[in-house]
Amino acid sequence: MKRDKSPDKKFKVKGTEALNMVLRYIRQKISEQIMAVATIIIYLLLFQTIILGIPVFDAAILALGMGLVIVGLAFFLEGLLIGIMPMSEEIGIKLPQKAGLATILIIGFILGVGATFAEPAIGVLKAAGRSVLAWEAPLLFLFLNKYSSSLVNAVGIGVGIALILSMLRFLKGWSLKPYIYILVSLLLGLSLYSYLDPNLRFVLGLAWDCGGVTTGPVTVPLVLALGIGISHVAHKGGSNAEGGFGVVTLASLVPIITVILLGIFFSFSVPQPMEDTEFFDPSNAKTQFLFESSDKMKDYAISNASYEAQLTLFDSDEQALMTYIGELGKDEVRIREIFGDYKAFQAWLINNGSPELKQQYVHLLDSAAFAVEHPSGALNQLNFAELVRRNIMNSLRAIVPLSAFLLFVLYFVLRSRLHRADEVFLGLAFALIGLAIFGGGIELGLSKLGDQVGSNLPSSFSAMEMPANQQIIRNFDEDMINTAIRQDGSSDRFFFLHKGKHIEQVPFDEWNYDAEQRIYRYVPVRGPLVGKREYSFAGILLVLIFAFIMGYSATLAEPALNALGITVEDVTVGAFKKSTLIQAVAVGVGTGILLGMAKIIWDLPLFWILAPLYALLLIITKLSTEEFVNIGWDSAGVTTGPITVPLVLSMGLGIGTQVGVVEGFGVLSLASVCPILSVLSMGMYVNHKRRAVLKELEQDEAEMMAEELAL
Amino acid sequence: MKLIKINIILNKELSPALVDDLHALGVKQFYVQVARTSILEKTNGISNFFNRSSLSTYPVEIISLFVDEKHEDSLMSYLTRKYDLKTPGKGSIYSQEITITHAHPDYITEQDINLKIGQGENFFHQLMGIVCIVQRGEGDKINKIALNYGASVPATTYGEGSGVRDKLGLLRITIPPEKELTNLTISKHDAEAMMEMYITQGKLDEPGRGFAYLYPIKQGLVNTKISRNNSSQAASVEQMISAIDSIKGGMEWRKSRLEHDSNKRREFLTELTEMDLICEEGRGAALTEAAMSSGAPGATICKIRSVKLGQDLEMIRFIREICKMIVPTDKVEGITNALKKTGCFEGEDKAMLCTVPVQKAFTYRAKVIKG
């Protein structure tokens, strides 16, 4: 068909008028995002300044970051709505028309695997498992380090299988419910098995979290729109699969299964959890498997294990250990690699170093002290070029391969073309720009602020050391130490420290004192802010309430949830409002994060929290209508997005480190399961209301009949 | 081909049963459109104090089918009785006279309905329909106007508009294409006044607000349950209204409530025809472009589900698009020819075109200065 392109048919818009239209459009999009993000930003700022009583550091950079988040979100969401989603939907519509079943399933599988590599969540998982120790949870350690690529592969295959199952479901018009019953039962069975195995138990949290984080802000809208298109295919039977929902659900459930299976596979070649001294005993052959080389194992022991364990690894040869460290200290790159920074290396020297070694690195101790006295500004530490490059790369990787693959399928497999290609490509460009800006903004703004709040949060219920503020005190003299006696006769040593305008009593810790160099490493302590005792109920309650509100308000800004909400409103013609869905999900995420924090603080076993929740879900799913089952379960996958995850991580890490848990996994999976519950519960309420209206009518009718009979 | 289009608006929970019924009656093809109804939620306390009535929305489905006139009364009567559509709140049913001008062989327009004609139900004949097309999100404002007046319960659907927007190039992204269509069935005598209320209260006389048009309805029933109430009276107000409606055989007696303000002179668009083009999903935008190049001012494209009897006598569902175009009657022929040229009535686009007369329409029009 030819389109009339004569110039008089084109609408002429004057330059100023066009500018006005664009400005109005930009203003509207930006203000929408300001509304979405405002809650979480204002909340974090107020919490930090008023409740924790800590000034906001790097305010200028934070403000820049927040601005970038808003602009980036506006671009990204618009890119989703005019580019990625219409493109995917159009391809979804054409796919069943022009391709056979096998082709569709292969395309689905490639898309699923591709989506996992496009938005790798492994970084998030590694961050959550930063404090995992090799001897405490060997299998988990293996997955996060040496075999992290196997983990990504397992997740990718899981998502691929999920897409195959979803395509089949759409093409046949099957209900989502049986899928859920089978997958969840299988999952609970596997989880129970894992829970009973001491090694697999630690992998459980990781596996469940994999389900939540795999579905990123590009993948979700993409598969959702594709699903809508495919579900429009002609089919017999009921209208179960209409609307295109359910892909996200399966893409969240199946990877959990594949990761647990991978865990079971490797559990036979991995040592059981043990003490570090035993772990690093050279006679223990199995432990070597966890590391790429024996040098890596030595490095790991030095930076993580106790001094005794380090000695064991060196066959109790102290001289060999000192020589190893002596060699290592000459290489700045190695120090950063192993210890992270000079401070940790310096702490090792002070605590464990032999006199010769200390002598060798005396200049380092001095320079470290120098660095503490002259802190460099945060702005200088930030590598802007690197930040920009990284975020542009992330954005390109998340959007280009998947879109290119879909367009390839459209143009070369289906031999068709896009209807509004110019609009779609503009949308893709928007999404690219938006995601890059948004990513940078998150790094500079939101997650920095989250780190500040998260790392200080434990001080509300517990006295916590602030290693970031540690200082090296030189010319320390033992004569300065005083002794205080307790009522029971035992005594404590302390010294007076002149800090700024006042003098403070500081407990003396021998561990931090180096008598020869007369250096004392002073780590300030804060808290508990609420209640007088450590771990007071009020203090923990404050953390839990914080967790709930943070989860709630972060969810309001999640772009993938926004896209899901718009789709739901569209499919139900406004009978199910976007805002209703977002509110229900946000309450669910808040509850989930609250439970997750409780899990970390009290070290509750994840299985015993998840299992009852999922069992309950199975019952509610049985009672709910297909419509709400689809929407409710899909909201589980979209909740854990780029805004919530970094905030949850910094909070989880802050608290996890303080209370000393092995791993901080499970929060994200709880933040995924609770929204399903809240959305389904809301669905039951809504349905109840709808039925009540119908029932009212029945009653009216009965009354009318009775009257007629009476007449 | 002159046919009757029967539309049934039914609660979503009941519509699967209707689909089965139509199948059993021998209807070979019909269409289902997802919609919502909005009714007034009687509120108490604070919100009452601020005099803010809120709306409750419920999912409904609009089922429509084309039948020969000889089946009209029996089918409508049967469905009215079966789904108890005379009880306010249950739903509504109405029929229109339409003309199918062209149809792809894929469409079944001849229905074999095996239904014994019993005693027919009485339907109102003095009805009209008002459709108002506004920006997405504005629909409930229009619905509220109708509900507050107490006309009947409107049904709202979603669609995407094209027209001026598509002539803007990429600048079009600054104007959202999403529209809402509210459909209201109302007594002929109130229709003009209702339209006037839409225009004044809905500010349709301002640029970019929306479009409203009136079309004739042959016969039907309206849903008068405009609000939720848990009254303990023997009969609700709606029931009484509905009872009097049926005694009087129409809604004329309710007329006096709305006086038409004749002081205002509106420039209505007249001599119009609604052209409904049903086609394969994804093709509507291209086909309406062809129509617009021959004089159609714009189009609204909605998704509609087609349910068709397959070869193995099972019902097959698939999605189609319905493009609604309100065009000057003298342009119908040109547009039809332009559409024909695209080959859409024979090829892959699988199009069907039907026309319905439109009494009049209103939208903002910029003043044309002659000179």
List keywords for this structure.
heterodimer, A: 711 residues, mainly alpha, 2 domains, three-stranded antiparallel β-sheet, disordered N terminus, B: 371 residues, alpha+beta, Alpha-Beta Plaits, 14-stranded mixed β-sheet, 14 strands, 23% helix, globular
Our estimate of the beta-strand percent of chain A is under 5%
In sequence order, what are the helices and strands of chain B, one letter per element?
EHEHEHEEHEEHEEEHEHEEHE
Question: Kindly, what is the distance between the CA atoms of the first and last residues of chain A, rounded to a whole number of angstroms?
Answer: 67 Å
Number of strands of chain B: 14
Q: Could you tell me how far the N terminus lies from the C terminus of chain B, measured between alpha carbons in angstroms?
A: 45 Å
Q: What is the CATH T-level topology of the domain at 269-363 in chain B?
A: Alpha-Beta Plaits
Rg of chain B is 21 Å
CA-based shape of chain B: globular
Rg for CA atoms of chain A: 29 Å
Major beta sheet summary of chain B:
14 strands, mixed
Largest interface: A-B, 50 and 55 residues
The 3D shape of chain A can be described as: globular
Main CATH class of the domain at 269-363 in chain B: Alpha Beta
**Helix percent band of chain A:** 55-70%
Task: Report the average pLDDT across residues of chain B.
Answer: 84
Structural class of chain A, please?
mainly alpha
